[in-house]
Specification:
There is one protein chain. By secondary structure, the chain is of the alpha+beta class. Helices cover 28% and strands 23% of the residues. A five-stranded mixed β-barrel has the order 1-3-4-5-6. A hairpin with a 5-residue loop joins β4 and β5. The longest helix is centred in the middle third of the chain and has 20 residues. 35% of the residues are buried.
Length: 246
């Protein structure tokens, strides 16, 4: 069992391996995290872990009524996550490697990171300026029939793309641009589908690639049928998540 200890960045979204994650960092706890990561030599990975929030607020209350009418100001690394922050997060997350950390003149940061490896959350330490987690790296097992399932998912995903783009528009991605490695397919599709956080979390923590692909195939068929009668939706970058305002 390989364990690592890394800074923890909770979000209201799920990060998958291979997904690009832009961050707009302005809270002091995460600014402190980025200042510490900048001490890492440029030729070494600047890693932190991302977990999806189960119960809590991505942005801590900064004044009465923010971010919701009942909130009161909180301070510290666990602000917004209760007395036991580990219980506020989903148990499986993803390591992120920050390729770019740029500090602005006002002390906030623009960060561009990429998901790399799934991890299991073992414990959370809130004694410092930001949360730090003890994590177990999770291997990606292939599972049975992963190759055939990946082919089926890609076919279903193209149909899903066409429905999202609208019957009068071309597919969002040409066939030559889609991967064929089952694990990569499974993560790309999980990230690209318009799903709620619990469903994306379920896909992230699937026991193996084949299981994730089976789940995605069912979801793709169901979602394609649902949107068949809906208006066209805007296309999205399939490997890039929306910028998080931490």
């Amino acid at each position: 069992m390989t364990t690592v200890r890394l800074p923890l960045f909770p979000l209201n979204s799920v990060l998958f391996p291979g997904l690009v994650l832009p961050l707009n960092v302005f809270e002091e706890r995460y600014r402190a995290m980025m200042r510490e990561l900048l001490k890492t030599p440029e030729d070494e990975p600047r890693r932190f872990a991302v977990v999806a929030i189960r119960d809590g607020h991505e942005v801590a209350a900064s004044e009465p009524g923010m971010p919701d009418p009942t909130s009161v100001p909180e301070r510290g690394p666990a602000a917004g996550f209760g007395t036991d922050p580990a219980k506020a997060f989903h148990g499986t997350g993803c390591i992120a490697d920050a390729a770019t950390i740029r500090e602005r003149a006002d002390g906030t940061f623009e960060v561009l990171a990429t998901g790399t490896t799934r991890v299991k959350l073992l414990s959370v330490d809130a004694s410092g300026p930001y949360l730090v987690a003890e994590l177990e790296e999770l291997p990606e097992e292939r599972g049975e029939e992963a190759g055939a399932l990946a082919e089926g998912v890609l076919r279903a995903f193209r149909a899903y793309q066409k429905r999202l783009a609208g019957a009068r528009e071309r597919s969002l991605t040409s066939g030559s641009e889609l991967p064929d490695e089952p694990a990569v397919v499974s993560y790309l599709v999980a990230a690209a589908m318009m799903l709620d956080t619990p469903t994306k979390q379920r896909l992230l923590q699937a026991p193996d690639t084949a299981s994730r692909l089976r789940d995605e195939l069912k979801l793709l068929r169901s979602e394609t049928a649902i949107i068949r009668n809906l208006p066209s939706l805007p296309a999205s970058d399939l490997t890039r998540g929306p910028t998080s305002l931490n």
